[in-house]
Write a structure and sequence with these properties.
Strand content: 15-25%
Low-confidence stretches: none
Distance between the termini: 99 Å
Largest sheet: 5 strands, mixed
Strand order of the largest sheet: 1-4-5-2-3
Shape: elongated
Oligomer: single chain
Length: 145
């Protein structure tokens, strides 16, 4: 009888030790990348233009930061699918429903990727499908003369 009580007490002690030492798995929400706006974020807000969406969600992207010059002030440039479109005002001509993602590159990253004139940063827009925004989709069926 003593052996059974001792065995039962040992089993309870082991069970309590394991239960106290077990980790509780917590699921964290996914990390929010502050340099990217997704299609879901743009459509969720029912914005009229991409400028309105960026202004509401990441307004700091629209203003140049850093050292500036009175002679040639820096500005944030907008690229759509790796084609330079212009300054941030060109975002007023883009519908959010045609956009897949919008990414902001800070000055050093933009300068490394696009060159010296991009020290204020770049807003890079990836369209939802090829040919959106009036850019012709590449036609691979035509033969070149």
């Amino acid at each position: 009888m003593r052996a059974r009580v001792a065995l039962l007490a040992a089993s309870v002690a082991v069970a309590l030790t394991l239960a106290c030492g077990a980790r509780q798995v917590r699921t964290r929400p996914p990390h929010l990348d502050r340099s990217v706006l997704t299609r879901e974020q743009l459509l969720k807000g029912h914005y009229t233009t991409l400028y309105d969406a960026v202004e509401a969600l990441r307004s700091t992207w629209l203003r140049p930061r850093g050292v500036d010059s009175f002679v040639s002030p820096s500005q944030v440039w907008v690229y759509v699918d790796d084609n330079k479109l212009g300054d941030v005002e060109t975002l007023r001509n883009i519908q959010p429903s045609l956009v897949n993602t919008v990414r902001f590159y800070d000055g050093p990253s933009a300068t490394g990727r696009w060159g010296v004139d991009h020290s204020a940063g770049v807003i890079h827009v990836s369209t939802w499908n090829e040919g959106a925004l009036g850019f012709p989709a590449p036609d691979t069926t035509r033969r070149k003369p």
